[in-house]
Specification:
There is one protein chain. With about 400 residues, the chain is an alpha/beta fold. The chain has 2 domains: about 220 residues, Rossmann fold; about 170 residues, Glycogen Phosphorylase B (Rossmann fold, 3-Layer(aba) Sandwich), CATH 3.40.50. The chain has an 8-stranded mixed β-sheet, sandwiched between helices. It has a 6-stranded parallel β-sheet with strand order 11-10-9-12-13-14, with helices on both faces.
């Protein structure tokens, strides 16, 4: 495939495991996109060069803005009219939009000289803004990723309608996000549903539960933010405790709700049953999943409309052999088949969660086949090599059609 640029906000980023897995898989396939990190990161990753944008170049905008305004006046006016007529949803998005546009204005000539065949913005925010603007200035076609955060969070992204309209392809990873894209006017042929992949396979030491009198080992992984529904999860834990189930729940992650959740653990008297472990590395999360019996995901649609698609940790926990109990809201339950390879439940109704977990603790053998089907399903549906092959094929076709 010809030369393609991948634009990231920050690369590598600890929490963005799937983008690292995907880039690794693409490299193994022989498709080696040029990685550009717009806001910090590291100059190399696993031996691959990462092009870090030197933000001092933004000072050259005093030259590039009038330069491109004269050469591409229509494109300039289109973007300016849109920004002027559309309220910016928040200060963070305002800054990200301006940085994306600044990157494009200062780097467009270099992208032309280096002969890129296509540009792919990994996220629909800053990277896709830069990809859109680069395309308008240079004529190089672009594609973009669009996931749950980009599509559902209140206010969305400032320039999202423009970017979706002009993209040669929009990649998403869940059916719920694909439906949202259709509602936003993206044609079905322009939407490519490509799952986020796994690139490592594990084996459990044992499928037994409660060996040597140990508790039912539960795990939950995610940022400590409202859309993860952790307060519902603590209510499930409280009812498990009341039902006399011997268990321990490990919550992995950090975020702005950390102090409130710690206080709620104390208030509910869950100190012996629930641990807040903070953030962990990808390797540490994998080990914790292998040592756990069940994964809980209690995601909700928060007050801003933000929600998850398929959280990376669900297929990770499936592959590790955990019993999956996941929210029936948004896209989380797309990762498995309800009552076949996991359970889809309402996080606001803790009794159903407690009944399954209590039964699992008392008769774990009944659930072993569900856990093993989940493991098999994760390996078949979330293999990073397969998802990377599909992504590279879709990008190649999209850029070929857009380039004429």
């Amino acid at each position: 495939m010809e030369k393609v640029a991948f634009l990231y906000a920050t690369f590598p980023r600890k929490t963005e495991t799937f983008v690292r897995r995907e880039l690794r898989a693409l490299e193994k396939l022989g498709f080696s996109p040029k990685a550009h990190s717009l806001w910090g990161g590291k100059p190399t990753w696993e031996g691959k060069q990462i092009h870090l944008y030197p933000k001092r170049r933004l000072w050259t905008l005093f030259f590039w803005i009038p330069h491109w305004a004269m050469i591409k006046p229509r494109e300039f006016l289109t973007a300016l009219r849109f920004l002027w007529g559309s309220p910016c949803p928040n200060l963070q998005n305002f800054n990200e939009t301006l940085l994306g546009l600044g990157f494009a204005l200062t780097e467009a000539r270099r992208f032309q000289r280096e002969g890129y065949r296509g540009i792919h913005g990994i996220w629909a925010t800053m990277p896709a803004t830069a990809a859109y603007a680069l395309s308008k200035l240079t004529g190089i076609p672009y594609s973009m990723g669009a996931h749950a955060y980009d599509l559902f969070r209140k206010g969305g992204d400032w320039m999202l309608p423009l970017k979706l309209r002009e993209a040669s392809m929009v990649r998403t990873s869940s059916q719920s996000s694909a439906k949202r894209l259709e509602a936003l006017g993206v044609g079905k042929n322009g939407i490519k549903l490509i799952r986020r992949g796994l690139d490592r396979w594990t084996e459990r030491d044992s499928w037994e539960v409660g060996r040597d009198g140990s508790p039912l080992r539960l795990i939950s992984v995610g940022r400590l933010v409202p859309k993860k529904g952790y307060f519902h999860q603590l209510e499930i834990a409280r009812e498990l405790q009341s039902a006399g189930v011997f268990f321990h729940l490990s919550i992995v992650g950090s975020g702005r709700l950390g102090a409130r959740l710690a206080e709620e653990v104390r208030r509910k008297g869950l100190g012996d049953n629930v641990s807040l472990l903070g953030s962990k590395s990808e390797e540490e999360v994998s080990e914790l999943c292998l040592g756990s019996d069940a994964m809980l995901f209690t995601g909700i649609v928060d007050e801003r409309g933000d929600r998850d698609g398929i959280p990376n940790v669900i297929p990770e926990a499936m592959e590790a052999g955990c019993l999956i109990l996941a929210s029936d809201q948004a896209g989380a339950s797309e990762a498995f088949i309800d009552e076949v390879s996991g359970f889809s439940l309402n996080p606001r109704r803790p009794r159903a969660w407690v009944e399954i977990l209590a039964d699992f603790a008392s008769d774990p053998g009944r659930y072993e086949s569900i856990r093993k089907r989940a493991k098999k399903h994760a390996r078949e549906s979330f293999d990073a090599t397969r998802t990377a092959q599909r992504l590279s094929s879709c990008l190649s076709k999209a850029f070929e059609l857009a380039g004429g």
